[in-house]
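re: that chain from earlier
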Amino acid sequence: MADNKMTKGAFTILKVAESVFSKQGYKATAISDIAKAVGGSKANIYHHFKSKQDLYQKALQMACETTFNIMDPSVIDKTLSAKLRLKTYIALHLQSLLENPSSTNLIKRELMDNNQFEGKLVAQEIFTQAFRQFEALVIEARGLRKTVTHVSASMQAYSLIAANIFFFDSRLAMSYLPGFSELAESPEYFSEQLYEIIMNKTAEQG
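^ sequence. v structure.
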């Protein structure tokens, strides 16, 4: 959803709605809550969006685009080795989570809540796409055959994504743990160590 396709007022409402929905969820949020947060009226919101569900779906779509556009394959230098590209993906994924907390929390909530909207399919599709990108790079980095299913590669890809999400959720708590303060203070260092542990440990065992 490109920003230039909507008015400034609609975009402002959408960003506020994203934040409110990410904190309260779809069911617990009323249009009046968003209107209050925006500093306007419900009528103004309905002027731009036909319903609460319409607003939610557009906010979710924007959150997905904001969070995962940074992982577009076109932003990675294809001349780099598969291992370096994978390292870059890990770092970009974590950077995107941290720079867009409302978007990240809304996507997480949508994937876990039992909302039956088209938005869930959008979130699931984009999450799956990101996972496949990780998985493909893991397979390439390990020099495995692409035509064969590799459970270990899938587990590594899942572990990389899960570790980044864990960092996003528990960065403050990590800073209190012995030996973790340096990792908590530097997402870049965390990404490097994550790669070394999950990828190189497997290579040693293999």
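The CA atoms of residues 131 and 161 lie 8 Å apart.
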